[in-house]
Each structure stands twice: as structure tokens, then as C-alpha cells.
Design a protein that fits this description.
Helices cover 18% and strands 43% of the residues. The protein is built from 1 helix and 9 strands. The protein has one helix spanning 2-24, and strands at 29-33, 36-41, 52-57, 64-71, 79-82, 90-91, 95-96, 105-114, 117-128. The radius of gyration is 18 Å and the shape is globular.
Length: 129
């Protein structure tokens, strides 16, 4: 009897994990850094375009936030959303552009910036278009 109960619990846990993974891609994913965050949205959802990024500065500390998108994870920054020149709190609009074919690997960093300098890369997201 205990083996059957353990099996049912394991199956229920697996179903919950798979369901959570399916819904995680439906909304924007957030990478956090000092003073704010960057967001990646792979698929259109609630008016947010697919294959899009944005940056949000949440702290009035003189620093801004940028979202850096690297398509194909090859070391080239292909798209940037920046809060430079805006007072916090502030989020950029969604910066989008279709990434084809679907399923291409991407990575996106949240980066804290000031003037022409950066504090370095913060949070990182690994995903697909």
C-alpha cells in the first residue's frame, strides 16, 4: 500500500512540475540586478510582444538599468533596452523583433549602468525565442 501511495505522490509532483514549466513561458521572465531588473518575453502574452526585452530601474540611486540580449549565445549583444536618461522608477517600453527560426537560444542580462560605464552584468536568463 505504501508503494502505491508513494507512486501517486511522485506522479502528482511530476504533473505539477510539468504544469509549472508550461506556464512559465507564457509570461515575461525577470533577471534582477542592483537597482532594478530586465525582462524577457518569448511569446506574445497579454499585449506584450514576443521576442521582446525591457529594462526597469526601481532605485533612485543615479544608476540606470539595461537589458542586453544575445541571440544564439555567441557573445554579441543584439538588442539593448536602456533606462539611461530617465529618473527612477522607470521601465522602458518593450523592444521587440521577430527572432527566427523559433527556438533559437538566447541569453539576456540585467546590467547596472551609469554614464558610459557599467557595474558589470547582473542577473542572467537563458531561454529560447
Amino acid at each position: 500500500m505504501r508503494t502505491v501511495a508513494r507512486g501517486r505522490v511522485a506522479v502528482a509532483a511530476l504533473v505539477l512540475v510539468l504544469a509549472a514549466q508550461g506556464t512559465a513561458t507564457a509570461a515575461a521572465t525577470r533577471a534582477v540586478t542592483e537597482g532594478g531588473h530586465a525582462e524577457w518575453n518569448a511569446d506574445p502574452h497579454n499585449g506584450i510582444p514576443g521576442d521582446s526585452i525591457r529594462a526597469c530601474d526601481t532605485t533612485a540611486d543615479g544608476w540606470g538599468i539595461e537589458a542586453w540580449l544575445d541571440i544564439d549565445r555567441n557573445g554579441t549583444i543584439d538588442r539593448i533596452a536602456s533606462t539611461r536618461g530617465h529618473d527612477a522608477p522607470y521601465c522602458t517600453g518593450w523592444i521587440s523583433g521577430n527572432i527566427e527560426p523559433k527556438g533559437r537560444a538566447i541569453q539576456m542580462w540585467a546590467v547596472t549602468v551609469e554614464g558610459t560605464g557599467t557595474k558589470g552584468k547582473g542577473g542572467l536568463i537563458w531561454s529560447h525565442s
